[in-house]
Amino acid sequence: MSREIPSSAEAEALRSRGVHHESSELEGAEIAIKDLPALPEPHRCEQLSESMLGITVVSLLIALFVGLTQGVAVGAPPYGAEWLALVCIYLEAAVAIGALCGLLCGDPGVVRRSPETCYPVPPEVLARLQRGESLIGLSNITDQQLGRTYCVRCLVWRPDGGSMGSRFPGSSMCHHCATCQRCVTDFDHHCGVFGRCIAGSGWRGNMKYFKCIISMAGCAMLTCIAPLIVRIIREPTTPHSSSRTVG
Question: Contact, 26 vs 119, CB < 8 A?
Fold first, then answer.
């Protein structure tokens, strides 16, 4: 005989008895995680076009700043400020490329399905799943007691802002991205340039990569301008004297 999904209060009681006991209870749940409806498909064409735009923008900026710095360094005295700027601009370009790879390939903080995030399934969701009905039109369900929200598209419990206690340690704002079709913790925005959700706090998520790319663009601009100013100061323009023909 199948067992009912435990309520919020029952789930808390199970957790107080120990993790091993909780896992054994969830294994006997009426709907296994693998039997839940598939996750919604992301808008991959939109993601691809946006990410290609981001790669193009970063590549053009790297080519521009490296090219300008290289042009200023050519003909400059060896081991001068111009050559130091050239070393710096290549390092900044390498860091920017690494941050771009981290942003495009890293996990922004997606809330993944697990016994910890999927159970207990809310009764209204469970009833529809048992009847084979669609969840379209059903609003997200909020658990005020534990400060969390059940996303009816991802079918996971997610933090609903602030401190979420032991279940979501250190998490804050969570949002379901309409483009990526996933719930993301510490959500800031979906970037239309890089095609990724920008989220995270501290070392979590991909916000560090996003900030790094922006920072490298500013540093590269300064690195490109500084040697040009040094060269102008070092080599002042000499006025052209007009040649006169002696008759």
Answer: yes
**Segment holding 157, helix H or strand E:** strand 156-159
224: containing domain: 60-107+207-231
Residues 115 and 162 occupy one common structural domain: yes
The answer to whether residues 71 and 177 belong to one domain is no
- Read off the tokens for 10: 């029952």
- Whether residues 121 and 18 fall in one domain: yes
User: Residue 75 has what pLDDT?
Assistant: 67
| Res. 51: pLDDT tops 80 | yes
Element (DSSP H or E) covering residue 198: strand 196-199
pLDDT in tens, 91-146: 999 999 999 999 999 999 999 999 999 999 999 999 999 888 889 889 999 988 88
Grouping H, G, I as helix, E, B as strand and the rest as coil, residue 230 is helix
Clarify whether residues 151 and 212 are in a common domain: no
As a whole number of angstroms, the distance between CA 81 and CA 8 comes to: 65
Q: What is the dihedral of CA 71, 77, 79, 84, to 10 degrees?
A: -30
Q: CB count, 10 Å around CB of 9?
A: 10
